[in-house]
Design brief:
CATH topology of one domain: Rossmann fold
CATH architecture of one domain: 3-Layer(aba) Sandwich
Largest sheet: 8 strands, mixed
Oligomer: single chain
Strand order of the largest sheet: 31-32-34-33-35-36-37-38
Helix content: 10-25%
Structural class: alpha+beta
Strand content: 25-35%
CATH class of one domain: Alpha Beta
């Protein structure tokens, strides 16, 4: 990415000092703003500021939300920073509360709207719940609106009216929710009455709250737009507000037979609350992610097909004229959608994975044809400005998310902001091989110290999903921490990876580990003959679907010296019924008595007795996508089958009692990284065993 900066245009607005900056303190980036390059310092790595989102105002201002670990590493706290759109001046911090501020959006008057649970200086609002705040260009931030369960800002109309989401207790109304919540809390009641599926999502329960869409006036008055919905209809809804504030488009979920749900698109008149069904889901497809164009004439939606034993789910981007007429399907090629935004000129911008990297495409809503706006990086948080400039966050395998300015005639320009990375401890190279006529590639990271005289041990990482890609920076699975430790890391994009079109997504379906491992292993074997790599010292690591792969591989080969599995599936007959995604899992894989050969071949637990490789099992107790029961059963099988004395058993289990599918707390991430690397050091390099009590 270019490091040069352009000169400031005369029309570029100045950057006023924030009223929240105590005593107009000097412009500061952050205590952690200098370029980070010491990847042996894992705690320091986890304290690097992280760009979370970016917003562009009609007057040329750009604001970003930046996360940093708190003093104890107990959580990430977000604050708002003003960025120089010209790329000349350093970023300037705008907000400073201990609770943090996130999700910035610009109001029509140029003020910045954001979410925060910070205390209200006027003594209004609810404690520990997120309210909507407004930070004017000059003056102090003030609460715009609050609700007993908090508010999440979803959209802003041209007249300043806002769309937000909140929750109420089932069977209640927004007006009596505070009183009902207090009574429930005082009674210490924690029951949930379930009447169907789903009952969980990722790390939270479904059924104890009724999610509502509310209209927020400029004065902070709330109108419940969906007062009659239950606990499932809007639990995972995406919604948008039309530019004139008259209509809300939202996904609308309904239960159907067999424990399944279907998501349609509904339009709600904000004045009358009248609902109109725009797009009806059926057994073949459902809809989500509605987004109004800047003039309100079109609605972009994503249509997702239903997965089956022979076909995975495919996502198609459709553009529907609001006034009627046939929809247009965007021509995306191999790009897998991750982010949408409408530009001022009426084109639809689409970011997504593409060929183990990423791109931004501009879609003509009349024809669906596309042109490339930016490539060679993974882009997110698309924020089009009024003058046609696009601001976004860009990252790749060697660079964390950085704010960039994208124009039609220049390469993306990085804007100064905290969190820059300096020199990496190794090289990054794209490698590929042929597997039955299909080109399979991946990223290879090699330590600077590796040579023929001192070859590096090699790790094979297999990504999760299975629809995912090793194309981006990761704070959770960062290869550079292992590279600093002396390991080379290979990260393939095998069958079912995103960014390779529908054919790539479906190759290896329905989740066939032998197909995936053959592609990964073939690429692994293709790079191992390099003189700077040591093919006698290897490890294999994976999480989620990659953890399932690790568990399956452990029972089918002894070629690795160590295997690390995080949030991995072990007993598929058990996991498919207990996951929060049980409906789709059972639709694809059926019951084990219907497909006994598939379960016998591919459920890792059937090969427990063949495992000889030392395994490190890690899992979060609050993981509902892959419930901790998978790790518990795997751990029992490993321990109970071990034929030697207990003190000689090589396997270990790192249980993360407060984490979910990921490891989000910096202090837990520190212990996880240290344990994973030390376990590999022990079994790959012959280092000392990890003590009985973790030293981290």
């Amino acid at each position: 990415m270019p490091s040069s900066t352009s000169s400031t245009d005369a029309s570029t607005p100045s950057m006023p000092r924030s009223p929240e900056d105590p005593a107009n303190a000097p412009v500061l980036e952050s205590a952690g703003s200098s370029d980070f390059s010491d990847f042996s310092d894992i705690d320091g790595f986890l304290r690097i500021p992280r760009l979370a989102s970016i917003a562009a105002g009609s007057d040329g201002r750009v604001v970003a939300a930046i996360q940093e670990a708190d003093e104890n590493g107990a959580k990430l706290v977000s604050s708002l920073w003003e960025l120089d759109p010209a790329g000349d001046q350093p970023a300037r911090r705008l907000t400073f509360s201990a609770s943090g501020e996130s999700s910035p959006r610009f109001a029509p008057d140029g003020s910045v709207l954001f979410s925060s649970a910070r205390p209200d200086p006027q003594g209004e609002g609810d404690e520990d719940t997120s309210a909507i705040w407004r930070l004017p260009r000059t003056g102090e931030a003030q609460v715009v609106a609050s609700a007993p369960a908090g508010l999440t800002l979803l959209g802003v109309a041209e007249n300043g009216t806002m769309l937000a989401a909140t929750n109420v207790l089932p069977g209640g109304a927004l007006e009596d929710d505070a009183e009902r919540r207090k009574a429930r809390k005082d009674a210490k009641q924690t029951t949930i009455w379930h009447t169907g599926m789903p009952i969980r999502q990722w790390d939270h329960e479904i059924g104890d709250q009724s999610r509502r869409l509310v209209l927020v006036s400029t004065d902070g008055d709330l109108t419940d737009l969906t007062p009659d919905v239950g606990t499932v209809t809007l639990h995972a809804a995406s919604a948008d507000l039309s530019p004139d504030g008259s209509t809300v488009a939202t996904s609308w979920t309904q239960r159907v037979r067999g424990g399944e749900t279907r998501s349609s698109i509904v339009l709600i008149d904000t004045a009358t609350l009248r609902r109109v069904l725009l797009l009806q889901a059926d057994d073949d497809a459902q809809y989500g992610a509605p987004l109004f164009s800047r003039d309100g004439s079109h609605l972009a939606v994503i249509r997702s097909t239903a997965s089956s034993p022979t076909d995975t789910s495919y996502s198609h981007l459709e553009i529907h004229p609001i006034g009627g007429g046939a929809p247009v399907t965007a021509q995306l090629g191999d790009l897998s959608i991750s982010d949408l935004a409408w530009a001022e000129d009426g084109t639809l911008l689409v970011a997504g994975d593409l060929h183990s990297s990423g791109a931004v495409l501009a879609i003509d809503p009349a024809s669906g044809t596309s042109r490339t706006v930016a490539a060679d990086g993974v882009f997110s948080a698309l924020a089009p400005a009024a003058d046609g400039t696009l601001f976004a966050l860009r990252n790749d395998v060697g660079t964390p998310s950085r704010p960039v300015r994208i124009t039609a005639d220049t390469a993306p320009l990085e804007l100064p902001a905290p969190g820059a990375i300096g020199a990496l401890p190794g090289t990054l190279e794209w490698v590929e091989t042929d597997v039955d006529g299909i080109t399979v590639g991946g990223w290879l990271c090699v330590p600077m110290s590796a040579s023929a005289a001192s070859p590096a041990p090699v790790m094979l990482w297999i990504h999760g999903g299975p629809h995912g890609s090793y194309n981006a920076w990761s704070w959770r699975w960062c290869p550079w921490l292992a590279v600093e430790r002396g390991y080379a890391v290979l990260m393939p994009d095998p069958a079912m990876s995103t960014g390779y079109g529908d054919a790539g997504l479906n190759r290896g379906w329905p989740r066939l580990p032998d197909v995936v491992f053959r592609e990964c292993e073939t690429l692994f074997d293709a790079v191992l003959p390099r003189p700077e790599l040591d093919d006698t010292r290897t490890a294999m690591l994976g999480a989620s679907f990659g953890g399932f792969m690790a568990n399956w591989i452990a029972g089918h080969t002894d070629r690795f010296d160590a295997i690390v599995t995080h949030a991995g599936l072990w007993a598929l007959d058990q996991q498919h019924r207990t996951t929060d995604a049980a409906a789709s899992k059972m639709r694809v894989h059926r019951h084990e008595d219907e497909l006994p050969d598939w379960y016998r071949t591919y459920s890792p637990h059937h090969s427990a007795g063949s495992i000889t490789t030392p395994m490190l099992v890690t899992h979060g107790n609050r993981d509902y996508r892959v419930p901790v029961s998978e790790a518990l059963r795997l751990w029992w099988d490993l321990v109970s089958i071990w034929a030697g004395e207990p003190e000689t058993m090589p396997h270990r289990f790192l249980q993360l009692t407060s984490e979910n599918h990921w490891v989000l707390t910096p202090s837990n991430a520190l212990a996880w990284n240290q344990a994973v690397l030390a376990f590999c050091d022990q079994h790959v390099l012959g280092a000392d065993p990890i003590p009985e009590v973790l030293p981290w």
